[in-house]
């Protein structure tokens, strides 16, 4: 419970910190083109002192995402899964860190995908036919969405109000926005799937801090043997402190 | 270019259940046997140790134990008028890779197919006449019947420590078992697994409706067990990490710790892992296999001469090697002739979700891969084909297999997919949703087949296998009929809401459905409609044998592993008792 109680102020500070060091530049201080150009210079967002972070947990250091991308991801995942009285938000559970690591992994680099041409548009039933790896697709999708948002709202996605962020994600989900580089549906689903995976995966992978999503839904984790419980707990609530992989090592 | 190696007696391609069983059974011959496995060596320790093996992201989402598509994949289209495109990401089915093959990550549903399921053509025609068979359906008998396979089914159950309850013991019907099963000589080696709450409800509801529920035969051991080979299986923990995972308890039978270590008792047996077999090489008359060409982990090419070649890869691997090696006549859709690649079939997964009242706790995280209660009342040839307008059936069941929440986080229809409304819905629904599923048979058709793709090549430069498949009217009717039965059962179970969707869309390769692919190297009595004779021997190249579900003429409404194992044991006997004594064609065409 400590984690959950601490999480919200941390989130606020994290956002404030990002703005302070420059990611917030995309909120309108700089012209839109300049913010986009910053994409390739993401390192400028990172060397800030850790002192800005409150007490017990370090500010996440992203391996893959640059500052603009990180700001987008943090805003998007917290729109998908916002903190409320039902349970924690995706950002406070480390889902941005999870996504960053996944994009930088063999999975993100498409190491088990077939990526040889020719690349031809197929039917929906034939599945993914782009030459992009998940990481490349993700990166291009953020550029596309931010370009759209800048055009319409004169700021980047992370600087939008909650209401506007919900509106943009809803339009993406309904394919009411046509992204120029990346098919809207594919980008939306990738962002959505990674968010859900990070929220619910074992904390080993960087998200689901404190196993908070497992506690929220009542999933008792990965370490329980139920041979002597399955009958005893028929139609009864089974309670236990969830165990994760690291808890059991 | 290839380094030529010293000859061996037997080359086996693929080291899952099929290849593992054959290798183990032939160990006593002392012959020089090399088994080629495209994936890595695997052992329970260190590969499947808890807690790391209980990693949903790694195994269930990132598919650690599944075929690497970067190296080889296939192309897909729904019908012959389309251009096939590569399967670039995993989806519809998940072929295994590594020692043990799909046997490491299967669920453990371990069936004997029914008498009719081995004789679908003659069984159907005897009851309904020839006119019931649609013109484009390749309805075909197995060349052997259930009774020939029964001893092998029995043997495979004992090796796996299958947990279940007989419903037909030597012809005597037993309540509580599957009264529709074919007669078995012996009871299951282990008693059934313990039922979860939804299974208890399902069983009672099915009985109320006059059906005959029984525990799914499960190769998840219900108690500690030592099989006839002296291999110990642990008791199933019901840990809920079974399908897609290796089992740290050795409770889920898998070739990597049962038959394969016993194959290694033959000092002349060798498993070459991380080795991709590219091709079977034939002599100049194309009547005899002389060697296989393979690449090792470093990409070096070797030629391994062998007197006998056994293809025991997954369905797609067997068919691909046959086509690429030009063994047998490839199927030609336009002419409707040829046999290799003909009669590919799949399976349909349908049914309903059932939402119960707020105080219900199904505890979905307590479960095992094959934990389920099932009815066969509408499976096999139990439905009235003439009245219902389809041939085939489906097994209807409710089980408890996994509560891991990346994959299992149901919400009622109409709920938002994200945001505060979603979170509320997922929390309110997690414990009180269950499912009544239908696993439907799929017949074979002229227009559903495998051949070589004209455009795409795999990373080794070979033409890819091309899959052409779509659902047909017969299967839509079965699915719709079964959905109605599932809904009735769910209501009878006490569901507040029964959630189902009528879907007559085209087959899509994108969402996971089932790894129960069949056909392409069918065995039969007629070389015009089968690639193999009844002994699983190529009609054309007599020192090539093929084993696996690629030999099934069409698919049934139940899992394929039982008959795959039984056929592998039978093949080993055929080789030991006949072929190796006198290597020749075992059936004249």
TrEMBL record, chain A:
Domain of life: Bacteria
PROSITE patterns: TAT (PS51318)
Name of the featured protein: Gluconate 2-dehydrogenase
Pfam families hit by this protein: Gluconate_2-dh3
């Amino acid at each position: 419970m400590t984690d959950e109680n601490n999480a919200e102020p941390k989130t606020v500070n994290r956002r404030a910190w990002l703005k302070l060091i420059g990611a917030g530049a995309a909120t309108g201080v700089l012209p839109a083109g300049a913010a986009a150009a910053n994409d390739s210079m993401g390192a400028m967002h990172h060397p800030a002192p850790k002192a800005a972070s409150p007490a017990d947990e370090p500010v996440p250091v992203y391996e893959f995402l640059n500052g603009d991308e990180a700001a987008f991801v943090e805003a998007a995942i917290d729109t998908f899964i916002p903190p409320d009285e039902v349970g924690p938000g995706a950002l406070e559970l480390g889902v941005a860190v999870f996504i960053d690591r996944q994009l930088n992994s063999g999975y993100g680099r498409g190491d088990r995908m077939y990526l040889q041409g020719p690349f031809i548009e197929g039917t929906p039933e034939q599945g993914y036919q782009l030459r992009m790896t998940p990481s490349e697709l993700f990166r291009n999708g953020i550029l596309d969405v931010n370009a759209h948002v800048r055009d319409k709202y004169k700021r980047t996605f992370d600087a939008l109000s909650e209401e506007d962020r919900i509106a943009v994600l809803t339009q993406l989900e309904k394919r009411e926005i046509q992204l120029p580089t990346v098919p809207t549906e594919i980008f939306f689903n990738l962002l959505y799937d990674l968010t859900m995976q990070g929220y619910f995966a074992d904390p080993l992978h960087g998200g689901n801090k404190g196993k908070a999503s497992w506690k929220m839904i009542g999933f008792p984790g990965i370490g329980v043997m139920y041979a002597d419980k399955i009958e005893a707990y028929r139609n009864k609530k089974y309670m236990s402190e969830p165990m994760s992989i690291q808890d059991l090592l | 270019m290839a380094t030529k190696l010293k000859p061996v007696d037997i080359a086996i391609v693929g080291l899952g259940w099929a290849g593992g069983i054959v290798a183990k059974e032939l160990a006593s011959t002392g012959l020089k046997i090399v088994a080629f496995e495209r994936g890595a060596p695997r052992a329970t320790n260190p590969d499947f140790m808890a807690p790391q093996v209980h990693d949903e992201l790694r195994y269930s989402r990132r598919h650690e134990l599944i075929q690497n598509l970067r190296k080889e994949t296939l192309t897909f289209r729904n019908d012959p008028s389309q251009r096939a495109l590569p399967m670039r990401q995993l989806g519809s089915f998940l072929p295994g890779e590594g020692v043990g093959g799909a046997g490491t990550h299967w669920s453990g549903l371990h069936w004997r197919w029914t008498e009719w399921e081995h004789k679908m053509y003659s069984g159907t025609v005897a009851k309904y006449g020839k006119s019931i068979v649609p013109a484009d359906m390749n309805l075909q008998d197995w060349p052997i019947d259930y009774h020939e396979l029964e001893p092998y089914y029995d043997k495979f159950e004992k090796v796996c420590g299958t947990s279940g309850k007989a419903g037909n013991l030597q012809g005597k019907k037993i309540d509580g078992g599957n009264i529709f099963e074919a007669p078995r000589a012996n009871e299951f080696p282990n008693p059934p697994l313990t039922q979860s709450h939804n299974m208890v409800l399902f069983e009672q509801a099915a009985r109320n409706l006059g059906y005959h529920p029984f525990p799914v035969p499960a190769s998840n051991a219900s108690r500690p067990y030592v099989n006839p080979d002296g291999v110990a299986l642990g008791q199933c923990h019901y840990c809920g990490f079974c399908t897609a995972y290796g089992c740290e308890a050795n409770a889920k039978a898998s070739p990597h710790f049962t038959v394969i270590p016993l194959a290694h008792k033959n000092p002349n047996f060798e498993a070459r892992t991380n080795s991709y077999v590219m091709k079977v090489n034939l002599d100049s008359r194309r009547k005899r296999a002389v060697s296989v060409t393979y690449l090792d982990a470093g990409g070096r090419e070797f030629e391994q001469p062998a007197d006998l070649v056994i293809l025991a890869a997954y369905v797609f691997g067997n068919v691909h090697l046959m086509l690429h090696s030009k063994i047998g006549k490839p199927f030609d859709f336009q002419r409707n002739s040829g046999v290799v690649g003909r009669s590919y079939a799949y399976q349909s997964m349908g049914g309903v979700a059932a939402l119960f009242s707020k105080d219900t706790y199904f505890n979905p995280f307590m479960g095992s891969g094959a934990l389920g209660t099932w009815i066969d009342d509408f499976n096999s040839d139990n439905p009235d084909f003439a009245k219902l307008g389809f041939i085939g059936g489906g097994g209807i069941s409710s089980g408890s297999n996994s509560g891991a929440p990346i994959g299992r986080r149901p919400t009622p229809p109409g709920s938002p997919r994200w945001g505060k409304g979603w979170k509320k819905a997922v929390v309110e629904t997690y414990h009180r949703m269950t499912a009544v599923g239908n696993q439907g048979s799929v017949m074979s058709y002229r227009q559903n087949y495998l051949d070589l793709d004209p455009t795409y090549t795999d990373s080794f430069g070979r033409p890819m296998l091309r899959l052409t498949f779509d659902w047909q009217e017969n299967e839509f009717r079965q699915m719709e009929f079964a959905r109605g039965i599932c809904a009735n059962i769910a209501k009878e179970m006490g569901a507040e809401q029964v959630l189902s969707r009528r879907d007559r869309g085209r087959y899509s390769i994108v969402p996971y459905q089932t790894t129960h692919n069949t056909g392409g190297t069918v065995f039969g009595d007629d070389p015009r409609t089968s690639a193999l004779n009844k002994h699983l021997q190529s009609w054309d190249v007599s020192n090539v044998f093929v084993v696996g579900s690629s030999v099934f003429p069409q698919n049934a409404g139940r899992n394929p592993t039982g008959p795959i194992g039984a056929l592998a044991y039978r093949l080993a006997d055929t080789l030991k008792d006949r072929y190796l004594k006198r290597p020749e064609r075992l059936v004249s065409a």
